[in-house]
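Quick one: co-fold with nicotinamide-adenine-dinucleotide.
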Amino acid sequence: MKLAVVEGDGIGKEVIPAAIEVLDSLGLDVEKIPVELGYGKWERTGSAITDEDIDTLKECDCVFFGAVTTPPDPNYKSVLLTIRKELDMYANIRPIRPLPSVKGIHERNDFNFIIVRENTEGLYSGIEEIGTDISTTKRVVTRKGSKRIADYACKLAKSRMNKLTIVHKSNVMKSDKLFLDVSRQSAIDTGVLHRDELVDSFAYNLITSPWNYDVIVTTNLFGDILSDMSGALVGGLGLLPSANIGEKYAFFEPVHGSAPDIAGNNRANPVAAILSLKMLLEWHGDLAEAAIVEEAIDVALNMGICTPDLGGKHTTSEVGNTIAKYIRTKME
Ligand code: NAD
Ligand code: IPM
Ligand code: MN
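Sure, here it is.
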């Protein structure tokens, strides 16, 4: 496999090396292509991502990505949004599954749902008019964009509990009526049991009763917010992995950002990045390796080897190292 590796900014530079140590411990035939992207590169060179960088990403089988810093500067073009659009990765898959040894806000750990977030349109259209007295962002919902994400979610639901929840706000935004209608039709056509919920009450229902959900499909910004919120269910943002998938390209990254408040201290939790690596291995068909990675994470956390966000006193590298060491011993 030819793998583009982007550390990015902040804790991306810490969690990706820890995850790469885990990848190396598996002994797979992987050619790693380092690609520098992000705010640091922008400060150094004046551009956060170039056309050549995009070509490099496209030439690889898939991308493993840490996190980048995005300043709220109107002249700065978000690296992540550029990549998602350029590689047309329309599905952002965010599984929320508790690890056996970590508790979130509930005593119960018997839930396992996936947020399927539309990743190319909605309020992330990039169509904006910024003025002094009025600024607008155009929310774009298309039939094509809604159908491909709904079809993806239905296919996923069929491989799981066959339960789909369509999350929207069509009572206020008529653009969501299109998303809702197309999603419902996709569920009917594919024989998936479905219901829909308005995003505000859904947020309450999800955080109080996560065990009621299986696959959730929603528009771009709602999916962004609901996935970070769901971090509270599993023990924190340092535990949530994701995959960005399109027809041609795939890209794996933790849900969290560059965490400037803790960056540079070797204390970021690398588990979200390592679980993203696990998703990458599954996508590539390396199922046995993916299972060992998951087992090794459990073993490390059960031994109390974890970073301060989980109440531990270990460093990012120590957690990565423990997981890699367990895998090396197991593979001998
Ligand atoms: P964030 O996810 O970076 O951090 C939110 C909080 O969670 C912080 O307190 C942070 O310390 C903590 N946290 C996050 N990941 C952690 C980890 N692995 N271990 C321990 N604690 C962790 O979100 P933010 O602070 O809102 O954003 C910071 C920057 O990151 C912004 O520039 C934002 O645009 C960017 N961002 C990038 C991505 C990405 O590249 N995928 C995603 C989200 C945010
Ligand atoms: C995420 C991030 C990104 C998003 C930002 C950094 C552009 O928050 O991947 O969840 O909003 O999609
Ligand atoms: Mn986000």
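If it helps, The first strand starts at residue 2 and ends at 8.
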